[in-house]
Structures are given as structure tokens and as C-alpha cells.
Amino acid sequence: MKLLSDFKPPKPNLAFISLCELLVPVYLKLVDHLTFKFLDSQRSKEFLKGKQVVIVVNHPDKQDPVVVVALAKYMHAALYYSVAAREVFDWNYGLLGWLFQRFGCYSVNRGTIDLKSIHTTQRIVSHAEHNLVVFPEAEVTGDDLLVHDFSSSLIHVLLAAQDEVAKEESSKSVWVLPVAVSYKLETDLDTSVNKTLNTVERKLNIHPDHTDVTTRTRVAIGAVLQNLSEYYGFTLPDHQPQHEQVGSLVAHILERIRVYRVVAPGKKLSMELLLHRLQNDLRKEIDTSRNKSPFQQKLWQNASKISVQFLSDLDRVERLMIFQRVLSLQSSPIQICRTVDFLERETCGRMTSKGRQCASVCFGKPVEVLPYLQLYKSSKNSAVDQLAKCIKSELQLALDISHGSN
Questions:
Q1: Range of the domain at 19
Q2: Do 209 and 66 belong to one domain?
Q3: Percent of the chain at pLDDT above 90?
Q4: DSSP run (H or E) holding 180
Q5: Considering the domain boundaries, does residue 7 fall inside one?
Q6: Residue 349, SS3?
Q7: How confident is the model at residue 189 (pLDDT cuts 50, 70, 90)?
Q8: Do residues 141 and 243 share a domain?
């Protein structure tokens, strides 16, 4: 049994990738009812031919990875690499990971310094024939309007790769292509979520009074949060708005597990970082216990059950964090769909499509990395900050255009 920390390298298969590019958009249109609108791409496509390119995409929705498949087909690229969280490769008994690797994905172990993932990224950027696609915000933001903070490690890798490229050819640059994605609900909101909301209300023993969808959704949120707070032995602060209540519940669950696991709190440890570190520790412990002798496994049985339960709790925490971000933003039809997604997942254990949705994909202005190399050699942090600011600014401009087209 391999440990979670084992790196999953890309094993791209061109035939499999071509099949995905053919079938996925059809599946999305007919089953998930998701279509695509591509904006102002021709100049970027022509300009970047034959260049070392990293495509950075904002991350507003859980459906973003399938947008990459549609993007690859649209740009007529033979292959794209992308990065996925290490735990995803173990889902569905490892089948999903096997498929991801054949599509050209490789793993990153969040919450730690994953040197193998970093070195793979740097190699692809500096030497591979095909482009790298990354989500620099790292987490699903639930935000179609604003680009959130980037991972600084990615910018470091871009500049380190540029240094390698420049050693072979001093005038050759790595390029970054910002690609912004935003979503719009194209069908009536009531029609899109009413069936699911009825199911959620039945599960929660709520008797709807035929008020508007927004009010019904808010009542269902309150019921789900109350159920979760009772389950985790937590009293929801009455004076807080719902998104802050979610944040308080997240903090309580994380602290509960942290104390049990005897993890030092750490002054600068964010909730996201604490979440990933706890997930890593628990998965490693579970994998290690499976390698023990039958007698040792029997001794570890109770501890292993607790670890598995904590891991399930942390998966819920990750969903709650995304949910909190969605609730903290201005309400819109697509945000209500995402809210109902969470409610359906918590009450029914699944998520179904919500109406017809359209993903608008806008290509921003390419950013040249080479001009930042000299500064990187003298002041790494300054170069990283300036390059990140430039990429983020261009991605935000593309996102504004993308959202404006909806």
C-alpha cells in the first residue's frame, strides 16, 4: 500500500486525452447542462505558438477542471498538464487518479512542501513540449467577480524555470496566459433549483410556505447548520450572519481535531493550512496502519476508526470553507445554485445539475516572465511579488470581461 505522500507523476496518453476532449463537452452539455463561450482568443493563440506557456485559470467553481478539458479542445493543443490535490488520486479506489494521470495530471500534497511536485512543475515549464495549466488560487473561491490571492510557490517556480530557459537561450522567455472563467445561470432560478430544494426540505423536515427561493434557501441553511452544530457539540452564535456562523463552526471542528491530535496551534497557521496538515497526518496514519501485521492492526483498530472519522470531518470542513466563501459574496442566481449544491450534498450525499449554465472563458493579455529574471537573482521576494501582481492584474481584467459578457 503506497502512502499518501507518494507522488503521482503525469502519464499522459494522447488517445485518452483525445477521447476526453471529444466526450466530456458532449456529456457536460447533455447531462450537466453546461455550455461554453470563448472570448477574444485568436491573437493569444497565434502569439503563443511555439512558446513555453503556463496557462493560469481562476477557480470559482467545482466544475473548473472540466473547463480545462474544453479549453484544450478549443485551443487545438495536443496536451495539457495540470495539478490536482494528492488525495483526489485515491478517490474511487484509485480509478480517478489513474484517469487523471493519463490525462496528464500530477499530484501536489497540500499543506507541505512537495518537492517532487515542484520539480515536476519546473521541468514541464522549462523543458516540456506542451503547456501547463494551473489554478493559482489553489482553492475553489466561489467568486466569479474577484481574483483571489495566488500561491507564491507557483511564482517562484515560474522564475526558477525562466532561469533554466535563459541559461540555454538568453532571450527566450516563459510566458503566462491568464484565462478567466465565470459562470451564468441561463434558466429561471426557481425552475433550476426547485426540485432539489423540495428534496432538501423533505430531508430536513421543513414545510415550505411557498416563499421565494432565496428565503427558502436561507431557512434550509439554518436547519443544516443547526444539525451540524448539534452533531459537533457547538452552539452557533445567534448574532452572527450565516457565513460567519459557518466560519465559527469550521474553527470549532478544526480545534476539536487539533487538540485530540495534539498538534501545536502555531501563531501563523491559517485554517486552510491546518486543515491540509491534519488531512495529511491522518491519511499517512491510516495508510501506515494498513501495512502492519494482523495483530498490530487489531491493536490499531479503534485508533484507525477515529482517524477515518476525523478524515470525514475534515472533508466536510473543506466543503464548509467553500460554502462560507459562497455565502460571504453578493447573492446571485449562480451563487444560490452553489448554495443548494452544498445543501444537497449534506442532506442527500450527492450533487445534481442545477438548470442550464454557461461558462464564459476569456483569454487575457500574455505576461512575459523574462523581464523579472534579473530582479529575481538579486531579490527573489520582490520579483515574486511584482510578477504575481502583474499576472493577477491581467487575470482580473480578463475576468471583468468574462463576467461582463454574461
A1: 14-186+356-404
A2: no
A3: 50
A4: strand 174-185
A5: no
A6: coil
A7: very high
A8: no
